[in-house]
Amino acid sequence: MISANNIALAYGKRVIFKDVNIKFTPGNCYGLIGANGAGKSTFLKILAGELDADKGEIGVTPGERIAMLRQDQFAFDEETVANTVIMGHQHLFKIMAEREAIYAKGDFSEADGIRSGELEAEFAELNGYEAEAEAAVLLSGLGIPEELREKKMKELEAGDKVRVLLAQALFGNPDILLLDEPTNHLDLKSIAWLEDFLFRFPNTVIVVSHDRHFLNQVCTHVADIDFGKITVYVGNYDFWYQASQLTLKQKQDENRKVSDKASELKEFIQRFSSNASKAKQATSRKKLLEKLTVEELPVSSRKYPFVVFKPERPCGDIILEIKGLCKKVDEVELFNGLDLNVNKGDKIAFVGGNALAKTTLFQILA
Predict the structure, then answer these.
(1) Could you tell me which of 255, 284, 257, 244 has the C-alpha nearest to residue 268?
(2) Cβ–Cβ under 8 Å, residues 70 and 259
(3) Given strand 29-34, what is the order of strands in its sheet?
(4) What pLDDT sits at residue 299?
(5) How far is CA 8 from CA 16, 45, 152, in A?
(6) pLDDT-derived band of residue 355, with 50, 70 and 90 as boundaries?
């Protein structure tokens, strides 16, 4: 379990967190959501110990291991892809390195024999014999082909590096898994694999993502950052949205009722305060009015942009017709005989493994 106790953080006059108290328990996946700049990535860094809060502390169950998706694509440039993944469990990787160094010695001493026995016992306890196989499964699931696994990280494209770093975070069954935008650079197949992995993952997961579908698939809870606080809701993203909107509406309705009641009392007081027969009632209502308070609702950090595209002229029902479209780049066929009809009101997504084909099609349409 990992918990945040009385966490506070501010940059100058801008308050990011104020007295945040929250517990993340094993077996649950928490979607950490909030507006851009609300502090989602910052909070993950505080949990991971990479950033100190102004106040408060992070509590972790003794002996539990935290793994976090790293964002530095160049930190492991001189390591092989396979080693980079296994380095997700730093203690295991150190044991592997020391073990290999001892066995590589030409003069194997008695002390080396004793130490190798100790290393073998700990290596087995940490499932070291399955490490390479586990790394291969993770890399395969995230779309890294076998021929890349012995290459150095610096030889990979940026998108592949991100996938390897994600495999690194997932490696070794960490007790607490912190993921910041894990679906970046993943195709649909890899995202589906990751959803299944997290669904079956037995420990604590805290994930930041702008992919609502992904959050709906993997989250058992939603931790909403707003007003400098973090509020936990049981359920996925859609449930959070419905529950938060209902809570807001209830507060607004309550305020409206109080305001209406206050207006009614004020009107009575104004009409009858000078009336001798009604003076007692007016005084009574004045005391009641003084007790009424309208709760001031804090301003949310969320902004909902309203985007409008104004066409130059009204369009018909058929927006676009493509028949038999073909394209090659450097003699590589991207598509051949492509047919597509786009009708008014359609919303279309181009998906597939060939990024160049999708980009080229957009460029042709533009």
Answers:
(1) 284
(2) no
(3) 66-68, 176-180, 204-208, 29-34, 221-226, 229-234
(4) 62
(5) 7, 14, 41
(6) confident
**Tokens in use for 288?**
């009641």
Strand-pair category, 14-24 with 221-226: unpaired
Q: Which amino acid, residue 243?
A: A
Topology at the third CATH level for domain 43-239: Rossmann fold (3.40.50)
* 228 residue type, one letter: G
pLDDT at residue 285 in the model: 81
Rounded-to-integer distance, Cα 263 and Cα 269, Å: 10
**Alpha-carbon separation of residue 230 from 6, 21, 177, 209 (angstroms):** 11, 8, 19, 16
How big is the chain by its Cα radius of gyration, in Å? 29
* Contact (Cβ atoms closer than 8 angstroms) between residue 92 and residue 128: yes
- CB contact set of 303 (below 8 Å; sequence gap of 6+): 35
Half-sphere exposure at residue 319, Cβ-oriented, CA atoms within 13 angstroms: 12
Q: For 46, how many CA atoms within 13 A lie in the half-sphere containing its CB?
A: 25
Tokens of 276: 């001798």
Between CA 111 and CA 106 the distance in angstroms is 14
Neighbours of 146 (CB within 10 A): 9
The whole-angstrom separation of Cα 197 and Cα 191 is 10
pLDDT, one tens digit per residue, over 301-344 is 666 667 777 878 888 888 889 999 999 988 889 989 889 899 98
